[in-house]
Amino acid sequence: MIAIVGAGRVGSEIAYSILENRIDDVTLIDLQADLAKGEALDMMQAATALEFDGAVHGTGDFSEMKGSDLVIIVAGQARKPDQTRIDLMNKNAQIVGSISKEVAKYAPDCKLLIVTNPMDIMTYVARRESGLPKNHVFGMGNILDSMRFRTYIAEELGVSREDTQALVIGEHGDSMVPLAEYACVAGVPISDLLSKEKIDGIIHKTVTSGADVIKLKGATVYAPAAAFALTTDAVVNDRKRVMSVSTCPSGEYGCNDFSIGVPVVLGGDGVERILELKLSSESQRRFDASVNALKAAISLLSPI
Ligand code: NAI
Fold it and tell me: What sign does the dihedral 103-132-265-296 (CA atoms) show?
């Protein structure tokens, strides 16, 4: 069973995407119990047309996450007009910290997947407050960034998205690092197909694409939900997928004691291995900036 804490726009879309992709049963938990129950009821009425007997159940009771193999935290606030990024970080850290303690109480053997922004910082908080093993706590953001990177490569070249491969590492935020040196189309490096100027344009679009959606409709919903279906499938079905997730390295990439996006093998045991890549000097410079941005944010976390 998968428990999702937070039945708002993104949480409910993730639940529906798990149902649509026939991955597992879902328990949807929210402080607003009626919202969780209503979303679940609506989805169950869709399930007949999907010809799938999986169940989505809504509740306000955290103890119902008991026995979950995977818990997804997507509860939190969006930034209000008068709120700074740091205020939002500290508000969401309180929420994610308190939910992580419930997870440790009711589902200590689960894999814990963090969505709430700022996601890398929230993954660090969840790991610290839950006390779960390092490899069982990870955050999703770079998979979505990588999907966006692939979309813009395909668009620029007029080829199928399916034939593109690309990775984004670092912070899931302004300092993310799209790895141009490892991006390819059917195995052909994009540097053989596109000018440096075009590649820089694609990288710029990748970095700003989340904000572009938020500016237009207030939140990103479908793309993160689709990325979550991939992540969830990797864990629930032990797929050993190679993806970038936010995790706390043990010295890899020169990082320790905080969470950052790096390529991993994701399977039934969570982050089963970190893949350490040689970075170009430009990517290394961007990655170092990402590390500094995350360390600076962590230093501004208020006690929980
Ligand atoms: P939303 O406002 O629609 O939903 C948030 C839900 O959390 C609400 O239903 C609220 O009642 C619930 N909630 C708040 N505190 C709670 C608590 N202590 N326990 C249980 N439920 C609680 O927000 P939306 O649009 O669904 O976004 C949620 C989060 O996901 C935001 O932080 C957003 O920035 C983040 N996000 C992250 C992405 C990623 O790629 N990592 C992509 C998209 C969104």
Answer: positive
pLDDT attached to residue 304: 82
Ligand 1 pocket residue status of 144, Cβ below 6 Å:
yes
Confidence grade of residue 90 (pLDDT, cut at 50, 70, 90): very high
pLDDT in tens, 102-148: 999 999 999 999 999 999 999 999 999 999 999 999 999 999 999 99
Mean pLDDT value of segment 258-272: 98
**Degrees to nearest 5, angle at CA 206 with 204 and 209:** 105
Residue-level pLDDT at 208: 93
Which of 71, 115, 125 maximizes ligand 1 atoms within 8 Å of its Cβ, making it the mutation to test the pocket?
115
Task: Tell me the H-state helices in 174-280.
Answer: 196-217, 222-236
Indicate if 172 belongs to the active site. Answer: yes
State the Cα–Cα distance between residues 133 and 184, nearest whole angstrom.
Answer: 34
Report percent pLDDT > 70 for the chain: 100
**Cα-to-centroid distance, 30 and ligand 1 (Å):** 10
> How far is ligand 1, taken at its centre, from the CA of residue 116, in Å?
6
**Sign of the CA dihedral running 250, 272, 298, 278:** positive
Q: CA-CA distance, 224 to 221, in Å (whole number)?
A: 6
Other C-beta atoms closer than 10 Å to the C-beta of 134 total 14
Q: How many CB atoms lie within 10 A of CB 24?
A: 19
